[in-house]
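tool_log.txt
---
The assistant was asked to compare two proteins side by side. It first ran the structure predictor on the initial sequence, then on the second. Raw inputs and outputs are pasted verbatim so the downstream comparison step can read them without reformatting.
(1)
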Amino acid sequence: MRPNPLRPPCSNPNDGIIFGFFPEYSLRSIFSPIARLVLCLLLASFTQSAWGRWQYTNGQEVRSGNFICLAIVTERGGNYSGSAVITSYSGSSAHESLPLRPVSIDITVNSGTPDEHPETVTCPVTGFSGFTLSFNADWTGDVSIVGDGLNLNGNNLSVSGNLIHQAGWLILNGGSHLNITGDYLQQCDENGDGAYESNCHGQLSMSDADDYMLVEGRVQFWSDVLYNTGIPSLRAGTLVIQGDFEQRTASDADPSYRYRSFRAAEIHVTKFSGSATQTVTFQNPGYSFFNILEVTNPHPLVFGSPVVAARVTGNATIAIESPGEGGISGTIESNVTFAGNAFTMISGTDLGGHSLTTNCPVKQVGDLNLSGGIITITGAGGWDQRSSLTIGTNGRLTVPGNYIHQAGWLILNGGHLYITGAYLQQSDENGDGIYESNCHGQLSMSDVDDYMLVGGRARFWSDTLYNTGIPSLRAGTLEIEGDFEQKTASDADPPYRYRSFRAAEIHVTKFSGSATQTVTFQNPGYSFFNILKVTNPHLAGTSTIPIADGGNMQLNYIGTDVIAALYINETPQANGLYDFTNANGLITGTGRIQVGPFASFSAWADANAPGQSMDQDHNHDGVPNGIEYFMGKTGSDFTANPGISPDGTVTWPKSPAFSGSYAVQTSADLVEWTDVTEDATQVTKNADSVVWTRPTGPDKCFVRLLVTPN
């Protein structure tokens, strides 16, 4: 006697079992009921093969009729208890029409005529395995996908409960619709204890434009086999989520693929349409991502991580919040507001003329193109650029803090960049939060409408700038209100390491601060300004100014400013006074520039107080010309006479270029004066100041400074 291969009627639902078997021969009725049951179970222990023709269920209603859960019992009226998994053979019988009828099964004993014992019983069905749907169906209660998965085959399935995807493909194709009132969870019950504690072995496939999957609860993607070929299986259709979304790392997948548990492409849409706040978290943003992300939820989305998409669309304004580091990347087709601790873009982003407003610092890891859009940071946050940024025509970026340019191009192509703090080209090479080395970034300005305002200091310290010898600062205006510093890049090839700032053609650099601005070039002649416009007559006396061949200086102030050195086309210029009358077109405007120290008081007076003596006051501020010369003051601005500090000291600024002598004198009655210049207990002589400290003793003490210039 040879039984057909069988699948066991009682087994772990994860094994993909079915109910029903079809022996070729009957068992004789001489066996006792118990013996027949034992033999039945033994026969049922074989593997199901081509006889898996029927589709089975737990007797729940479907739109086209009723499924019937079948089992073979030892006698009429017998009972069966256990659980089943819906399965189907992959052949044509998978499309069996409904309603299914009870099947007559021959139970054969050793001899005699067959005795038919068909029975229909009610048993709980726990999942799908290798099941191809051939009709529209409703499901009540939780259900799992195990074994060889579930193919909707162009049909619709409604699940009134949770759908646990443990293994196999869940295939939506041909316009299939899957509605889940509970959760869709990719996870496994590895040890059969009823707890789903690990990543799964299943994949979701959507390939038709009309495919549609609605999940009213939360969604979790945690598969260890998805995209191990690199080909996304979410290529079309729409996944609508009304609860939270979570992507997790699969622990036991190949390292190259374990981060890819959700990857959408082509025309696939993921839509968030909840009626309350929804949380979206990617454990591996950049490896896993949305394709088209559509947001129709009027409430904010809470991002537990940065989120990457090819396109972002939906509400006129999409509100995003984050308890920590979050962000959105992709082609942005809506305005976005973000509130959190840090906003991060980790992939190519195109603002497409829309606005992004955030109240926290921005870390830009992926490429960003404003395309005429506007980014505004409303808090005190800064900007950390680690990839390329393009601000096109009508585009505007406002940064209230510091702008750290670590890598990539910063391209102003008709756009505006406003930085309240500093602009610093520098790198944090080891990630310790300290910017200690030169960077790999470049600033490009090529349009006459380009504009960049730096409210703080500006540092240019790139190891890649101008390594082709072609300046990238060719037009537009760079306005600086703080100090300027050009530094040598340590690891670039010479002579390119010296070229961290080179301007040409019609590019303008403007110094417009309201306090002293120091301009430092570590490599004047290799790095230089093109057109230098100065409206602040307070460049520090230690400043070095290099001008490109064919460039010029526009001194738009009244008076004379002093700098340490001037270079024209790599050549240092002689010390002296320069203005529009003697610079061969190099200088325009009303201001004058003194290169190097004044040789004498008379030279200072020629520049600042023509025809006056040292005891006169050319600007009527109460400080004699000789004292202003001593202090290094130039121009007609008001000079404050120093007062007594709370610590009992008086400090007079002193120009390092002062030529002459001076004396500090004290008096108790303003009649008799004593010279204390060489009394070290009272007078401290510094390179740039003279400090008098009041001695202990008399209640009244007056002090004065006498200056005798050369």
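(2)
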Amino acid sequence: MQPSAPASGISFPKPVKISILVTVFGVIGLLAIMQWTAYSVRRHVGIASHSVFSAALNSQRAGTAFERMNREYSNAFEMQEKIALLNADREATTVESSLDNASSSMKFNSARHQQIVTLQHRVIDLHLRSKILFAAAADVNAALPKQKDLADLSQENRAVKAALETLQSDLTNDFTAELALVNTLLRVQGILEVLLLVGVVVALTFSVRSLIDLTVRKREDEILHQANSIRDGERRMLRALIDNIPDFMYVKDSESRFVVANAHLARIAGVKTPEEMTGTTDFDYFPPELAQGFYEDEQNVIRSGQPLYSHEESYTDKAGNVIHILTTKVPMLDSNGQVTGIAGVGHDITKRKKTENARREAERNYRGIFDNAIVGIFQSVPEGRFLSANSSMAFSLGYDSPEEMLSSITDIARQFYADPKRRDEFVFLMRKLGGVTNFDCEVLRKDGSKIWMAMSVRAIRENGAVVRYEGMCEDITERNLLRQQLFQAQKLESVGQLAAGIAHEINTPTQYIGDNVRFLKDAFQDLASLLENYQRLLSAAKDNTLTSTTIQEVEEAVDRADAGYLLDEIPKAITQTLEGIGRVATLVSAMKDFSHPGTKEKIPLDLNHAIDSTITVARNEWKYVATLETDFDPLLPPVACLPGEFNQVILNLIVNAAHAIADVIPKNSSQMGKITVQTKSFPEWAEIRIQDTGSGIPKDVQSRIFDPFFTTKEIGKGTGQGLAIARSVVVDKHGGSIQFETEEGKGTTFIIRLPYNGKALAAMAVAA
């Protein structure tokens, strides 16, 4: 049995009990929270650096490979290069493997994993369909793919591209969210460390002082013995507490000698028990230069009486590892307020430092994506100044670095845009629509040369006001050159298509001009013979040698020449010849107007005259199937246009109208359709309407008629480029709009609007 306590035994005062309980449970609770925080930090850093970041890189790689795959398929189709199919297949494999790696990295996130897997399946399906269709398109001996299949493939391609961009954006947001959570947890951990130090020091100070006051009041040895026992118990409890805290804890006197040390510090110092450190200094355990730094910090605290919070220290352990410690040192005061020593606590932040380094490395890697992107990326402000730009954009403009570009271009409208008015249109669209896609503009390089760029930009708003623009840009100079070549090919195709008809139109008047000239030649010979006889008759009359024989010979010559017939027919032949020459001159003039040499700058154009010339050139295309009526507005003012390209648009629409009418007129029928061409002036634009009585446009293809290579005509009758080029010329180059009204079985009307002032109508075209 245990002996009973004496009646005069010591009882703890209630405040001391509360202090001890608060200390114990507070420290335990704080330790648990700190452990949970440290675990959460490690887990989220691992997710951000190994999973989300890896998935983001793979999605970026997939997006880049996807773009290259589309370019290779386009080369295979347009240039019939079979090697491009192999390249496209290889790029498709890269896309699929990159998405597979990304899905593996994101298995912890079921929603994102499923998103990637779904996208991967769509890419595989798109790859197989593209491989089949484009292989057929690249084979000159194979039948061309159906336009519907190509259109469906194009639509799916755009959908997959959009899904890839969405995935990249989602992964970037996931990575940012993980880093933000890590920062929050690290701040929480720092706060908890300070709370732990303050709570332990306050609790220790309060408990020790209470116990000392209690022993002073006790007079008897038994009471003193009981007090000492309690104090020893508290010391053991505190010792057990501080020895099990995974931080360094110690108390030193005014000479920086250890008075108290915990077990964790003893293990670091290389001694068996903390008691062995009593009376020693840091010089006994650490290198002199390191110990000297510890000593100076402690003496500064003792001299100033000011605590040193969250001071970072580092040292190299015996294994050669660099250990980082976050230490706090506070002065210990006696009852008179004099500093008698210091109490310190140190937390090993080596893992946290590694985490921070990993985070900084991740940020550098993410920055690398920005800097090394193959397209230009930039930020600018509406006032006309760039905030940032990546290397790709700087190099495209001829600058050696983004910094040089940002310092050189201080006025975007004047120093970036070749035409400052294009900047005004860009700002107008951004203010009205909030963003643009593939906004084409000619820009200036450092050396003054010009290139074409396509920009996709969005406006960033704060409190409803646009504060900056963010976007991407790409050098499309070669693409524009290819488009010009395609337009020239279309123009040559049109000239070839019209050549036979033009030759026929010229040949008809030429034939009867030739017939009349030959008639006049023969008539002239007859008249010349008749004039000779008249001359002989006149000479005989003057010489009084006129005989009946001479008169008879002249009469016979008149009968042979049929002078009455010649006098009647020669004026008709001359009139017909002049009419034929007029028709040929009209046709040649129309051809000259139609084939206006291409210009880079728009010039004022009489639309009525240009359309009339095009109608004349295309006459052989429509005269056998339709009558053509014009209703030109005589007050229509000149419009700034590219004449050659405008004429090509009108030709394409008239030829399409003739073909549409031919499709509904029975062969060998005298029935004729009707084409009506009308111009009209409006306050902001000039309007051209081309109406036909053809078959109309089926509903299921109305949304695709302006797509490149889409056509409803039979193979060999059209390339599918006419309406695509028409839209490009009207919308992209003239800032106008092209629309249509159609009714199946009754006909179609195409409506072209060209602005007098390009801004307002350009916004309408983009919004549509």
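---
observation on (2): Residues 477-595 form one domain. The first strand starts at residue 248 and ends at 253.
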